[in-house]
Structure of Acetyltransferase:
Amino acid sequence: MRVLRQSDAAALAEAYVRNHDHLAPWEPARPAEYFTQAWQAGDIAARLRAQSRGEGVAFGLFTGSELVGRFNLAGIVRGPFQSANLGYWVDGAYAGRGLASAAVQAIVEFARDELRLHRIEAGTLPHNVGSQRVLLKAGFQQIGIAPRYLRIAGSWQDHHLFQVILHD
């Protein structure tokens, strides 16, 4: 796993095309252009600009040159909050192998040790038990339910909210 680079746009677009059906129930509805190298290049560029401002970090999980997962620390807020949101997915062909758990644990350590954050929040759909297990393994605790939290797969859906506190 490493920070995404501009040169990863083709691999990211290929991963989204390959995982279209796998990700559709868990993500916002996407326009056709989203699955292109050009769209992904623009998204990576925006995330790199956000990273330079200290607002987020986008990671890719690779096996060789093939991108098999994406992990985003986004919405980093400093000041008294020192917090970020975590979103992620793993390629359907690699799901259930512990990759997401290992990656989220590494991101928690990175956020604590390198970014010096106090807290990370993540949300899952109530029926996404696999993602909830990933978060619990990484030390997250469920803190509540957010009704109609995100527009996923074309409709506003409730989410279970989780957090991990990184510093006492």
